[in-house]
Each structure stands twice: as C-alpha cells, then as structure tokens.
Amino acid sequence: MSSKALVKEGSDHASSSVTDDSLAPRVYSNRVNRQVLQFVPKGTQHLLDVGCGAGTNAEYLADTLPGIQIHGLTVSPSERDQAIRFMDDCWVADVATEPLPLPVAQTQYDVILLSHVLEHIAYPAAVVRKLVSLLKPGGRLVIAVPNVLNWRYRLRFARGRFEYEEFGIMDATHLRFFSFDSAPRYLLKEAPELKVLHHVAGAVVPISGFLRAKLPKRFTSGLDRAAARFAPNLFGWQTIIVAGRRDDVIS
User: Are 196 and 242 in contact (CB under 8 A)?
Assistant: First the structure.
C-alpha cells in the first residue's frame, strides 16, 4: 500500500516498478503532496504514515518539521527500503489484514496520515476504525482519496468509457471509489467518535498549460481555490478529510 504522493495535480501517481498483472507490491515514488501535508500541524512530534510509498511525504515532513518522529507502514519491502531513509522506523505490514506491528500499536500519534491509500483497501472504514485508538488526545487523522467524479472522468463515463489505467484516479489497483461528497460518509462510518475538522478538495480549473504559464500564478491559484470551494465535486481531483475525536478540543 502506498501514499502515492502526487506527481502533478489530477494524477494519482507517476510510476510503479511492476505491471498491473504482477502480484508483487508496487513501489510508488512521487513528488510530495503539499495540499495534504499542510494539515500536519507545527509541533507534531509523532506521525504514522500509513501506505508510505518510497517516503516522499516523510522526506518533506522531516525537512520542514525538525524533531518530528515518523513511523511508516507499507506492504512493499522495496518501499520500506527506500522510505526508511526519511523515517525513524518503517514496517512491512498490511494494515487491512494483519495486526499492527507492536511498536506501532504501543505508540500514540499526533497525526496518522493516510494519503491515497484507502482506495486500495477492500474495507477502508474498518482500517480507519482500527487506527483511531492510536491517536493522542487532540490528535488527528489526515486522509486523502481521489475524486472519481472529477470533470475529466465524468466526460469519460458519459462517453461509455470505464477503463482501468496504469495510474491516476482509475489506477488498476483501486478497489474503492469516492466522490467529494461520499468520502467522509463512507470512510468514517465505523468511527462515530470522530468528527470532521476539515473537508476540502484539491481542485484544478481546466485551462491549458500554456495559459497557466502565461497568467499570473496568483490569478490561477485563485481560480483553483474558487473551484475547490464552490464546485469541489466537479473540479476536485482529490478529497482531503481531517478528523479528530469529538471529545477533544482541537484548534
């Protein structure tokens, strides 16, 4: 399982080391997902990166949050060998079907990060349920999943195309699909003690790369923010959910 930090807006991951027909776990090594990591608060001391990929998100966090201790989980030994360079420790374990490694089960975390991993799991709500007990008081789960109702895929479906791909929202290893509206409802349904603190979309207005290069970045960023706010289910390519316990006071 992998965090698949996104190589560009609108894509789920850039590359993998095996084909879709292989039974071996993929290795995902991509650019950092800053839209998700902005919800990791300053002062975070202990973070669990579930589906850590090759460690790109961990590398960014280690550089920007001095003193943070990062643990990782992945199903791929090859990913573990790469991610451990940026972590305090990393274990090969399937969080959906196996017990948590003992050091993880005995640790309380400020943040549990699930960036583009839950869509690869048959029963993702059960995984969320399993991880809640690892949160410190005031801790948070930071979740990101792709939005299958992004405008680009609506057009494909309207044309009668529903085909799996090597990467992206229709990644052939995805087992679950979510929209901006449905993601919190399905992912948190087995953890009623959680409340949604933030629910936002990572959105991109469909203008050409040429125009994006020519227009002021402040203007295009403003367009994207407006799209994320007013039409997240249409323009959003990822859904971000930040959740904490209902009985905690979280700023």
Answer: yes
Interacting residues of 151 by C-beta distance below 8 A, sequence separation 6+: 206, 234, 235
* pTM for this predicted structure: 0.86
pLDDT of 13 higher than 50: no
d(CA 4, CA 50): 11
Phi–psi pair at 229, nearest 5 degrees: -80, -45
Two structure tokens written together for 136: 């410190």
Q: Is the pLDDT at 134 greater than 60, yes or no?
A: yes
User: What are residue 162's phi and psi, to 5 degrees?
Assistant: -135, 85
**Helix extents (H) in 84-201:** 102-105, 124-131, 151-158, 182-187
Return the structure tokens found at 10: 């609108």
Judge whether residue 15 has pLDDT over 70.
no
Tens of pLDDT, residues 206-244:
998 888 899 999 999 999 999 999 999 999 999 999 999
Q: Order of strands across the sheet with 194-203? A: 89-92, 69-74, 46-50, 109-115, 135-146, 236-245, 194-203
| pLDDT band per the 50, 70, 90 thresholds, residue 173 | confident
Of the candidates 197, 172, 176, the residue with the CA atom closest to the CA atom of residue 187: 176
Asked if 5 contacts 29 with a C-beta cutoff of 8 angstroms, the reply is: no
Q: In whole angstroms, give the CA distance from residue 166 to residue 148.
A: 16
Q: Which residues contact 213 (CB under 8 A, 6 or more apart)?
A: none
